[in-house]
Every structure is written in structure tokens, then in C-alpha cells.
Write a structure and sequence with these properties.
By secondary structure, the protein is of the alpha/beta class. Helix content is 27%, strand content 21%. The strands form two sheets. It has an eight-stranded mixed β-sheet with strand order 3-4-2-5-1-6-7-8, with helices on both faces. Strand 3 and strand 4 form a beta hairpin. The longest helix has 14 residues. The chain starts with 42 loop residues before the first strand and ends with a helix. The structure holds guanosine-5'-triphosphate and zinc ion (ZN). Zinc ion binds next to helix 1. It holds the Pfam family CobW_C. InterPro entries: CobW-likC_sf (IPR036627), CobW-like_C (IPR011629), CobW/HypB/UreG_nucleotide-bd (IPR003495), P-loop_NTPase (IPR027417), Zinc-reg_GTPase_activator (IPR051316).
Length: 403
Amino acid sequence: MGGDSSDDEIPDLVQPGTIPTGQDDEVPQLVESTADTPPTTKVPITIVTGYLGAGKTTLLNYILTEQHGKKIAVILNEFGDSIDIEKQLTISDQNTTEAKPAPFVPLANGCICCSVKDVGVAAIENLMEHQGNFDYILLETTGLADPGNIAPLFWLDDGLGSSIFLDGIVTLVDAKNVLKSLDEGFGDEAEKLEERKKEDGHGHDHKGPLLTTAHLQISHADVVLVNKTDLVSEDELKTVVERVRSINGLAKIKTTNKSQVPQLEGLVLDLHAYDQVTDADLQFASKGHSHLDPTIATSTIIFPAISKSQLDAFDRFLRTILWEDELPDGKPHDKFEIHRLKGRIPVVDGNVLLVQGVRNVYDTTEAKTEEQNADDEAKLVLIGRGVDQPAFRESLIATLTTK
Ligand SMILES: Nc1nc2c(ncn2[C@@H]2O[C@H](COP(=O)(O)OP(=O)(O)OP(=O)(O)O)[C@@H](O)[C@H]2O)c(=O)[nH]1
Ligand SMILES: [Zn+2]
């Protein structure tokens, strides 16, 4: 997207269906609420990511103009990837207070909206002062963002996550260009990847096929919207969907034209991707995996229910693969890198253990009810590089059975 090139600190405001010009002086401001009682419930946030021009803004504009009866706060990234949102978030962590709060504009359908340039964190913090005026946040990242770096900021009870909880990640994919992006990277990225390949010759870790931003955005997604269906044939679309599925066997995949999702619930809102792990979530991934994509795959480890005395060993397995990128017991293996992890582990005489992970952050909880897995097997689904080696299961079994 174009955007303006001035250095204005105040972001442009977005009216329904319009693109900011950067020239508006009469900016509507939200009336400051005087009630400053602390928030009682956490507000869910869905991160909307996807490659440059894939249709993120189109999706959010669509939501802003539809009558859906919801009060959604939308943070639009109207400036392409000029500033990387990951950097904005990091800067805020270090208490830099230069960014001015971004004004939110109330819209006719009950939503409020703000358009950010380089004030991502300030926008969210400012937003939290208007609690009660909305009940959901949608955040557009820049096209080159790695959602794996952003997700942990909103997940678990620290940082920005204290008043917000991560509901999930929606990735827009450009049906026309995504295969090329996966194979070659994009623009400057392709050059960077070439450089990295050269470096690899000098003993660096990144051997093998390219890991592009497009891979990262798909592998971390809870929902993938394959957009711009009007620009491809049915066969091409099928190929794209299969490639996406081979990378991420956990995500819901839907095809869209002009980012018009058939429904918001479950596709953009209320994904519960980080606070639930249902049997159904893992069912699809368990149906075997494909190697359509040379870089990233989804792999499911199936093993018997564990006993309470094995819980520590199971946790050690998770810590080792996620924190050290190693298998316990020094098992030989190819290099791997885990982007996303989900599991349901039945515990004999106990409740099912639910496991959630993104990159090296993970969380285990007990299922609240006494529900069991349909087939009573434990399932651990891994998405990432090199995760489909038999050594994973062997090492897990060995870890669980050694004292
Ligand atoms: N043909 C076609 N064009 C689309 C579709 N969806 C969006 N577009 C157009 O694609 C262009 C980019 O869409 P945006 O929604 O701005 O994409 P974005 O992901 O927000 O882009 P950046 O913020 O620049 O990364 C716009 O001109 C849209 O009108 C679609 O389904 N088909
Ligand atoms: Zn955009």
C-alpha cells in the first residue's frame, strides 16, 4: 500500500471504506471516558497476518463496514511493511515513550478503528483505556511480519498479554502469488535468502530448502484464508490449498474472494486457538502428512496414554525440543525447528493434559472435564522444519520409559 511519506507521528484516521490520505486535519477523537476501573475480563485479540498485498486490509475494511452486531476494535496497518511491527512491540517493552497514542474512530456499526504507522503498541495501550467500548481486537501486522515473534507477546500472563489474550492468528494468502513466495521468497527477501544460502556454505545451520516469510506466516496460522480466488483457475487453487495444508495440518483453510469470509465466528473471531485443544483440532493433522512442501511439515506423534509418574519426563521432552532444539538423551537427529505445537495427552487415572506451544513458549493445562480422547491415544502435533523424523517418537518413548 502507498500511504504517505511524511514523518507525522499522528496516524491517519480511517473512515469506513476509505483509505487515509494523510491530509485530514479534522480528526474525530474518542471522548475520554472518566471511568478508570481496572479491566475485569481480558479482551481477545486476533492477529491478521499475510504477505504484502494478500488482502489483510481488505478483510478488516470488510469487517468494519459489515453489520455483524459486534463491537470490534480494528488496528489497521496502512503502511505496508515500512516499519516492522515486531520492532514497534520490542521498543515499547523497553519503555520508550516517544510514540503518541493513536486515536480511535467510532464507526456506524459499533466498531472502532485506528490506522497505525509506527505506533502499534501505543495504539493497543491507548485502546485498553477505552475498555467497555469494544469487546474484540483485530490487529493487522505488516506484510513481512513473523507471527511467531508476535504471538508470545499476547499469550500467557505477561507483558501486553495482561489485559488481552491471544485468540489466534489468521493468515491471508494470495492465491496467485503464494507458490512463488514459498519457492523464492519475495523481493529483497529473495536476495537475503540467497545470501544465507551462501553463508550456509561456511558451516551455518540453515541448510536445505528455503524458509521464507510466507512459510512462517502459514506455519503459525490457526486459520488460513486463501484469497484472490478470482485470479486463479480451480486447479491452481486446489494446488495452493494442498500446499498450504501440507505445511500446516492444524489450520482451518478457507478460500475467499476480496477477503469476504463467509462468517466471522470461528474464522476470524473466537478461534480459541491458544486456550483450547479439542480432539477435533488434532484429528485432521493425524491423518498422515505430506511432503508437498520441502521446508515445513506437520507431523503427529501418536503414543499410549501416560501415567502420572511420567508427567515430569513428558515435560522434560517438551523443554528439550522447544528450548534447546534438541532431542533428550542426545539422540542423533537432523536439525529441526518447531513453530507450533499442540497436544492432547490422556493421563491414566487423571484428566487429559492439553499442550500448546508457539516457538519456544509452551503451556500445559489439565482438561477441565473428564473428557477423554476418542481413541484414548496421546497425540502431539508438531509444525516446523524437520519435525517429521522418526527420531522424535523414539526419543519421546525413551524419555517416558527411562527413570
Ligand atoms: N483481484 C483481487 N484483488 C483483491 C482481492 N482482495 C484484495 N484485493 C486487492 O489487492 C490489493 C491489496 O489488498 P490489501 O487488502 O491492501 O492487502 P494487504 O495484505 O493489506 O497489503 P499490505 O498491507 O500492503 O501488506 C488491493 O488493491 C485489493 O483491492 C481479491 O480477492 N481479488
Ligand atoms: Zn494492509
